[in-house]
Design brief:
Layout: H1 8-12, H2 16-19, H3 21-31, E1 36-37, H4 38-45, H5 49-61, E2 65-72, E3 75-82, H6 84-100
Antiparallel strand pairs: 1-3, 2-3
């Protein structure tokens, strides 16, 4: 056990679906908006189309986001929304991270 009361086991209990940097970035962007377009999310995160698609599929698979398919005229448009489960998981993840930080890092 460390000064903060954390153990290696508590670090290993972090939600690995969220802990991956690309997925954390995706959920963080989605948490700040009602709905985000694929191209905007790609630009903001810097991920390739394939990487973004792969990570959003994984997040959708566990129920953390939903994919919205629509058309603007004849052009297909894909966007994403964070789900309530996704918001709850992100809040829990942040809470776990704060608990792992030393006292001065918890602000």
């Amino acid at each position: 056990m460390t000064k903060t009361g954390t153990t290696p086991k508590s670090i290993l209990s972090l939600d690995r679906m969220i802990h991956e940097p690309a997925r954390l970035a995706i959920l963080t962007v989605l948490a700040a908006a009602e709905e985000v377009g694929f191209l905007f999310l790609q630009r903001v995160t810097g991920l390739s189309k394939g990487n973004l698609s792969s990570h959003t599929q994984k997040l959708e698979g566990v129920g953390y986001l939903e994919t919205v398919k629509a058309f603007q005229g004849r052009i297909p448009v894909t966007s994403f929304r964070i789900t309530e489960d996704g918001r709850a998981a992100l809040r829990a993840y942040h809470k776990q991270l704060r608990a792992l930080l030393p006292e001065e890092g918890r602000r």
